[in-house]
Design goal:
Elements: E1 3-9, H1 15-27, E2 31-37, H2 45-53, E3 74-79, H3 82-87, E4 94-99, H4 112-136
Helix pairs in contact: 1-4, 2-4
C-alpha cells in the first residue's frame, strides 16, 4: 500500500505545488501525493514556468483548500511554510507531521530575474529536503 503525503502552505500556489510535483518526480509512484493551502488562490505562473524547466508540468494543477483533505488519512502531513504550520498545528488524520520552514518565493519583489531566482531557490531547497527525507524514510513497497 502506498504511503500518503500531503503538502500544506498558505495559498497552495508555489511551495506546496512544487513539493507535490518534485516528490512525484523523485519517488515515482511509491507515494500518493497531494497539496493544499489554508486559502486557495491560483498556481503561481512562475512556479509553473520553473517546474516546466525541470521537466515537470503544473499546467493541470489547481490551488486547493484543506477542506477536502481533512477527513482523509495521511501518513505524512508536511507544512512548507510557517503560516501553514501555525494555521494547522494539528491535522486530523495525519500520522506524522513535519514542518519545513521555506521562504515564500512569491513574496520577493524586484526584477523578473530576481523573482525567478527566488522560485529556482525554492525548488532546489524543496528537492534537497525531499531527498534527505526520502533517504531517512523507511522503504515503501
Amino acid at each position: 500500500m502506498k504511503q500518503r503525503v500531503l503538502f500544506i502552505c498558505t495559498h497552495n500556489s508555489a511551495r506546496s505545488q512544487m513539493a507535490e510535483a518534485l516528490l512525484r518526480n523523485i519517488a515515482g509512484d511509491r507515494y500518493e501525493v497531494a497539496s493544499a493551502g489554508t486559502e486557495a488562490t491560483r498556481v503561481h505562473p512562475m512556479a509553473v514556468d520553473i517546474m516546466a524547466g525541470r521537466g515537470m508540468s503544473l499546467e493541470t494543477h489547481s490551488s486547493k483548500t484543506l477542506q477536502p483533505f481533512l477527513s482523509q488519512d495521511w501518513d505524512y502531513v508536511i507544512t512548507v511554510c510557517d503560516d501553514g504550520n501555525e494555521a494547522c498545528p494539528v491535522f486530523p488524520g495525519g500520522k506524522q507531521r513535519l514542518h519545513w520552514s521555506l521562504p515564500d518565493p512569491s513574496s520577493v519583489q524586484g526584477s523578473e530575474e530576481q523573482r525567478r531566482k527566488a522560485f529556482e531557490q525554492a525548488a532546489r531547497s524543496i528537492e534537497k529536503r525531499l531527498r534527505v527525507w526520502l533517504a531517512a524514510s523507511p522503504t515503501v513497497s
